[in-house]
User: Fold these one by one.
Assistant:
Number 1:
Amino acid sequence: MATEFIAEPDLQFTKDLIKAGGADVKKCFQCATCSVACAIAPDNSPFPRKEMIWAQWGLKDRLMSDPDVWLCHQCNDCSTLCPRGAYPGDLLKAVRKMHIQNNSWPSFLGSLVGEPALFVLTLGIPVVIVLLLVYFSNGFNFSGPSPIDYGAFIPYIAIQIIYTLTLVFAVVSLLISLKRYWNSLGSNNVIEIRGHGRGFIPSFIEALKEILPHTTFKECAANNIRYAAHLLTFWGMIGLLVTTAIVAFNIDILHLKPPSQNGPGTVPIKILGNVSAIAFVVGLAIMVIRRLTVPDQAGRSSYFDWFFLFVICGTGLTGVLTQLIRWAGSVPGTYFLYMIHLMFVLTLLLYLPFSKFAHLGYRTVAIAWGKSYGRNMTVPTAPNYAPAHPSAEEPTEKG
Amino acid sequence: MDHKIGVYIDTGYGIGEALDVEALCKLAKKEFKVAVCRAEPYWCDPEKLAIIRNDISTESLTAVVIAGPSRRVLEDKFTFEGAITERVNLREHVVWCQPPNHEDTQMLAEDYVRMGIIKASNYDDRAPFKEETVKSILVIGGGMTGMSAALGAAKAGYQVYLVEKEAELGGWARKFPKIFSGQPPYDQLAKPEIEGKIKEIKSHNRIKLFTSSRIYRIAGAPGMFEAIVRPDGPWIDDVNKRQNDWKREQAAKAARFAGDKDAGKGEEEEVGAWGVGEAEPLDFEHELLKVGAVVLAAGWRPDDPAQFESFGYGKYPDVITSVEMEELAAKGKITRPSNGAAVNSAAFIDCAEESVKNPFLYKSYVPSLVALKQARYLRESNPDGKAYLFYENMRTPGQYEKYYEGMQNDPGVFLSMGTVTGVSNTGSQLTVEVKDTLLGDQLKVKVDLVVLGTGMIPVTKDMAIVNLKYRQGPFLPENPYGFNDSHFICFPYETQRTGIYTAGCVRQPMDFKNAEIDGLGAALKAIQCAELVSEGKAVHPRAGDLSYPELFITRCTQCKRCTDECPFGMYDEKPDGTPLPNPTRCRRCGICMGSCPERIISFRDHSVAMIGNMIKGIHVPDEYEEKPRMVVFICENDAYPAVDMAGIKGHQYSPFVRFVPLRCLGNINLVWIADALSKGIDGVMLIGCVHGDDYQCHFVKGSELAQVRMSKISETLQRLVLEPERIEVHQLGIHEYDKLPKLINEFAEKISGFDPNPYKGF
């Protein structure tokens, strides 16, 4: 069936994409080397070729409702093989940024995080909150109490209120953003993927089955050290989350005192926390080093990438350093770094739906959407290519 | 004339080991009484050449026969003052393709030696054609190409006459605001630089400029053209009408001849030859120029946009052609023709041609470049403007790729392949519908302006321009696509009228930079022509050939086959109907020689009698020996090198064939077939160049004519009571040497299936 389509290119959108990292998108001449090279592009309507022409033509609607950009794990095979130097991998990344930014709620925060000129302001908000918190707790007294008692430096309750509120805000905001994205996916399904019409929950579960062990990411064989690094960071992060949740649960619900900050490291909860932290930091270090040393494979990093990396690395690094300096015995240093760590954690949580961190939600939703529509990596031609209503196409020649 | 001949047999290259050279020498001395016969290895050695030179002076030899390597090599070494040279190919045609020291191989070598000696002894000593010639160059068209040609020729020291129909020089370049700069980094446009050229032309003392003038007529031949330049006026329409009427009648006549009885019905008038009879009086203002050669740089006109009615041309004022877009851009800001509002979006459509069979006929790469250029006009006029480009192919050859890359990088330029199916008016804008695009099978865009990239038609399509006073008509012959025909692959500037060279867009669509270069190229060809002709030499492809056809006119029967068949219009016609040769127009292909039933046309080194005698000189064993003989006439341009190549590659084939090289297969005269068959030769084969639309014949239609002539030979065969299958005609490309052994062996096999030719021994 011929699908008619009125193209209304959005010149500004193309310019935005170029600014957001797709600087060479216009160089593409549609040879499709990228889609052929990609190890994980689906057989029907593969990416990133179609995204390239949509981006060149400023077809905002199509790109903003495109689930495929989130199927890409940026192994960058497409960019290194592109005969024209159009960097399809970078374009997909730029589109992902636009997804996060354009679906964000409240939208001004999306624009704030994405704009390099507003870096100081972006970072300033959580910094000021933590500074105020420290000021009202102890008036910037970093010298005591000794031995280290974080609960005495800043009351746990204050931290819990602020951080829980922030987390709730972030989660709500992310859910609203994702809902918008999910809606747009359904409304403008131009790639004509039709599947079995599975419901959201089973699709979501299937998506998780793929995400948790990073099975698709592993298919990006061209760059699988990144897969390993991301897997470490991912599970390190989950480990840290679990650690934090258990500690919070113990304090708030069971009213148990947390294990002494200065006690032995052999407490199970501490082992979990430390192992997770090491995995987290090591994974991140690999990613950052690769970005700096082999940009060809890691892709060209934009402000959006660096902002998120800065925050998440800062979180991990300050966390680990706080513990190390505590072992070293510097009380003021420990409290000072603890404060910095809190700043980073707050930044990470606050901007979860607006920074690259949001990819955890978008990618899950896009994969789940693909599952619900039966968009698989390799599709048997017949069932998925069959038109939704084959009978509607055949001319009725009765009478 | 009687020649005193020296035969020099080369025993190098393996010839000495494979043949009984002594026997060959004996044969030359006994059968032909040659004055000298020597056998040595490598006669091309300077010391050995000295022996030959010494023989020429002491024995007063007039002809030298070198029996050794192919005549395609070492030609310069075997050129002797005071004696003509004939080459016998014992290397590629004998020892390299036949088993050594075999009886049949020896017989083959003996026959070639005989044929070589016979050919040499039939040489006629005639002086080359010399007449008073001029070397001035006439350039028709004062656009970019013509100006470049005129300046090039003038700077090389030749008198130039430049004729331009408009009042001003410059042509299209004067009307277009910008063209490609042609300068690194090749991504910019620049104003056409014509003012400097115009100034230079006007002040050059070797260029005589005629503006607002046209060519009334060109008569004569290279080196002695007489061109009449006449101020432009309504007379040109009469001339064109007369010429086109003549052309139409000619076509009708040809169609009637081919069997279409209704062709040209109602026009009863007998179509005569063009330019025969009394010249009409020149009772008008004119100037008569004597010129040596002509450069035709008359350019192009845009294709008629009326054929693009489905794209709304003529219906909506905002649908314009690319030429109109240039005019619009020349005014400054680009506005809509309908209401004068600024253009925010425009679609540039590379229109498919009227004739689907040749979709790129009048296009080449130019419309791609023009669309990219005009997209830049829009983007510079309106930074928020959107330019859509739809095309079947985006063709930006060479450095233009850089320009394409630059435009592609512009966010406001939207490119997609696709076929535009229609343009409609929807409210204030036009909607362009495109199918099979990169964005889907059906696409619509709304635009303020639609620009149709139309084709570039060579102006010679419906005007002769050169208005030749040739018997074969006023036009330059066309190929099936409406461009001047030439041997396009090998000789791009040539036309089928010697001494007239096309350049620029009249030759093929091209951009200004290439037109400029093309003009220079054609000017050089014209100079080359004027110079060679002044020395009595052929121009091309047999450049430097000093022979030319001579007619024993008293035996002419006015059959007009030579005047009709010459692909180059060499013959005009005398009032009595006999041919009037113009030797400087001649390319020395010998097609006329082959066409003449009276066999009265001959070259000094190539004649009907000479080839006939060579065939008669072949030794034909009697039928009991079971050694059939076949003569294979080969074109020396493609087939001969192919046979050489087969030898070089060591391909073996039947030893019963005898190759006879011709200047062109169209050179074949039916009498040679009769000569061969009545001598007892069992089969005759003709191998010529590929013909048809993509012909490879150096002389355009020689191989085709040969095929036609052979189709009429059944009469001869019936008279001789022989099977018509004894004659075969084949086409062989120069690269198809590997097919040659199979071709020959199959023919030999077939011939051995027939009874021996009953004329053996008569």
Note: The longest helix of chain B spans residues 235-257.
Number 2:
Amino acid sequence: MTALAGAKDTEMVDNHKSASPDRVIDIEKLSLTFETGDGPVHALSDIDLKIEQGDFVSFIGPSGCGKTTLLRVIADLEKPTAGSITVNGVSPEEARLNRAYGYVFQAAALYSWRTIANNVALPLEIMGLSRSERQERIARNLELVNLTGFEKKYPWQLSGGMQQRASIARALAVEPDLLLMDEPFGALDEIVRDHLNEQLLQLWAKTSKTVAFVTHSIPEAVFLSTKIVVLCPRPGRIYDVIESDLPRERTLDIRESPEFLKIAHRVREGLKAGHSYED
Amino acid sequence: MTSTALAPSRSLNPFAGLMSGTTGPVIVVVLAIIGAWYIGAVALNTPFQLDTYERADRTNVPFSELVSDTLAQERPVLPAPHQIAVEIWETTVEKKITSKRSLIYHSGITLSSALLGFLIGTTLGILLAVGIIHSRVLEKSLMPWIIASQTIPILAIAPMIIVVLNAVGISGLLPKAMISTYLSFFPVAVGMVKGLRSPEVIDMDLMHTYSATRVQTLWKLRLPYAVPYLFTSMKIGMAASLVGAIVGELPTGAVAGLGARLLSGSYYGQTLQIWSALIMAAFLAGSLVALIGLVEKLALKRMGMTR
């Protein structure tokens, strides 16, 4: 727990070989290099990471550390240039085709010509679900994010926080076991963010989903996560993996507790060290 | 406080309310244009009028008589607005629609081929755009031809189209409509390529995470995104279609249609006939474009894209 350098080696190499049944994501020696006009950019370098069923994992780091890229690799939105990755034991592409995950983007990305209900219905239409099944899932998931009664509204009629909640409902409607969230609350003010964090945590506790969550907020990462992955830039790599010993049932008050502050301190130290390492 | 202070001063000037909106200024501009037109008409028709006086051995004609005479010629160089208005009135309201001298009859003929050509052109434009955005091969092979097609003067290619289509046994409305198609598919194709490519990266990524097929992405993302582009393109295409239909009537010696009216008017120096056909064509184009604008407003409102 205390030795920062040791944290990198906590995962044993021989664990990779026998994929345990509840391992959701298994990443081994993964690298991703973008070829640009100014030469190669090493977005991700030598990433090793395991995520188990029911984990809430946060990726935190300064901009350019590859945290979003890592999430996009899991979602098959980017292809790694080296190393291996499995999602639910299969390749990310296969997992995507199996609709194994729901993805929540930085922006709500609601389609402006669709009402809130129809936005939630979008993935369900693509999956070819029956009308009654769609209606049932829309109602259930909008209720889950407290948006019942807004079905017939258009996105622009909702506040930013409500739009992001609608986009979470849309991701949940697919009923994935894995939720990938890329700074979903980054654009929101702190009051709304706190509220949504609490709601998200309740949701996670209720549904026992696995969540991979990108953020640049230390309190958010510590409050939400069972595991915090600290990344550092140039090349993007994992600096530290912190297993949180906070209880799964949390309220916002926990942020005042010494345990919380201790983990937050370690994250902060990791971010600082990861940065000075480069300079 | 200020409202009570403003109220009396507003009521003192009866035109203040009119000029505060857009109606007043628009009326002023229209009146200015009509005024300039009258001055132009007098100036342009004066030489012929002076000739007439000379032949009739009339001298010292008062200026007021000269003005009223220049505005009442049978074949003026530039007809006055009221002469055109009278001509349009006589050839629309006072003529049966079935009459060969009815402007409505001729407009109907041109309009039907313009609309048919517009429908075909719009459909063709959309299909081309869908093909182009999905296939680099199609883009590389079609785009140069599409652009080249628009660099050829329509007056040069119109007779060719009619001759070729006649040779394969197609005559009547369709050959003329093809010229409208030729002009109207282009703005729609170009606009729709732009529109279908306009979804944000994040919107495309979303479809990717759902493993949506190309067809699903087209229907559920690209086409809705392209709707505003489609309407803008259709407005240009509609006006071009009408031009195409009129131009299509010119080199083919058509006996009916607005183009035929322009043609026969210029044969016989019937400037009034030419101008009334021109005004009618402008009126038609304006109405059709306004109609598309109305449909656009309703469609975007229904799609929740306007606030």
Note: The CA atoms of residues 8 and 14 of chain B lie 11 Å apart.
Number 3:
Amino acid sequence: MQKKHFTFHVDLDMFNPASAKDKEYMVQMRPSSTFFKDGVKRLYKNKVAFVSFIIIILITLSSIIIPFFWPYSYEDQLGVQPGKAVDASYNNLKPFEYGKTEQALIDDGESVFPHIFGTDSAGRDYFIRVIYGTRVSLAVGFFASIIVLLIGTLVGSVSGYFGGKVDLIIMRIVDIIYSLPDMLMVILLSTVLKMTLTPVIAGTALESIGANIISLFIVFALLYWVSMSRLIRGQILSLREQEYVLSARATGAKGKWIITKHLIPNCISVVIISAALQIPSAIFTESYLSFLGLGVNAPMPSLGSLASEALNGLASYPYRLVIPAVVISLIVLSLNLFGDGLRDAFDPKLND
Amino acid sequence: MNSKTLLYIVKRVLLALFTVWVVITITFFVMHAVPGGPFVGEKATTPAVQAAMEAKYGLDKPPLEQYGTYLKDIVTKFDFGPSLKQRGRMVIDIIADGMKTSMKLGLIAAGVAALIGIVLGAVAALRRNKLIDRVIMVITTAFVSMPSFIIGALLLALFSVQLRWLPANGSTAAGLVLPIITLALYPMAYITRLTRSSMLDVLGQDYIRTAKAKGVSGARIIFGHALKNSLIPVLTYLGPMLAYIVTGSLVVEQIFAVPGIGRQFVSSITNRDYPMIMGTTIILAALIVIMNLVTDILYKVVDPRITLE
């Protein structure tokens, strides 16, 4: 057929129903993958990150579950029984040793649950103290990074969204907080907050958490949100100007659509990654303060305070230092490696 | 140096001064939240010290006036008041005493960290993906994940308590070896990783290829071109490294009983020696701020390719 230009004559062949063969092209070979699924797949392939993830899950689960069925508690001094003289044979037990009354029970043929890591100088089962200390350290790290995430996101998005004078003032404040030496300020604030908070929270539900931990959270809320808010602000500023946002706007997309479909998905991975990397740094800070005696209140253990207590009996009981040291290093190392893996898997800008 | 660089330096110096002032102000008013205020001791304070405080700061006057006196004394006389707990001694004298030991410790640790870190990082980059690179990376990753007090306590347990090679007390020269190693390990690991990645970056640059094409010898390329340029990012780590060493020394001096400023600071916290806490916080913070300032300026001056904002 001769091709005619400028004609309204319609080629009817193009409007035939699709044949079976044509339809084959349209069959979805596999369900379409989402950004999240892609990321999980990449993360799964990353051996180091995957192993780190397993380690984190194992440590977290055991620190939550083991205290429920363990026959000893982290604060019970086993040698102290009501109405009896203190039985010093329970203090400083080596691993798998037993106190006098326990030994008598074993000699009578009864079974006694072993002290896997022995007991500490006050006769408390050391294994459950390590487990509980891990729980405390993880919880502090987790909640501190949530606080940082919330405040940082709020301030950062306000600053990036409004721009202008608001942005200028917020960013100057951020600059100043950023240039303060953080650890010294943390020590200063914790010292003072500890003294002023202790009488305030006496008798309330907060007392069980302890003034030190609360002041640690306050310090994180005051100081550590700055880098997160800088990050969020930068993200929002650069995303706002992206071509795909412009094109979405040009095709008539409304603000809500742009925020939920473009801004949040592109921002969220960066936010989550930096929140994940915040956890080990919070654990670091908490253990550091506990080591200086500004962390958890006795008898509550944390990995830092356990290591600090272990220094006194270093010659006879070096394992009391080694155990919390290994646990804390393992937690920080696997959280860091997992965070790196998350960044590799979810940061779209790194994928070529 | 052009006028733009000069303007940048002036701006940076002003920001640093402002930051130090903010630190002094925060320290003073945060300390005022303590019941009784920072210049009133508990039972252990001698009446003489209390009377001196009364005369100096006018404890019956409003906090703002006390703050004015405190700030004026620091700026004009570098005077942080008397210690509440160490009889008859001024805070600044105690700090100066402790600073001698701590400075020695910190500077040697920083030097060791920089030297070994740069060498290891360069070796790792030049032998990329070989066995030695992998070994260096694994070891440095482990060190970066260990808090300084854990490293210190483990070294103490191994070398002083178990093997008895080195004394556990840091007041002698031999006793400073372990504290120095403890303080140096983390910055060393960090500098190694920094040098490695920046060296790899530099080795891929065009000017290295040009040098190779011109037939420059391998050693000259490494020392004359690659190493020199890859040290620029390492320079930026100087400020954070000092901050790390200062905070690290608080626990390290505690573990090894080094008579330095860190140990004084920690014991002043447990003793509630408020003027001492304030003085030490301000001086250490000023030190860190100044070091960050020097680092920033050095960075811009050394590398002309860096554009100023």
Note: DSSP finds 13 helices and no strands in chain A.
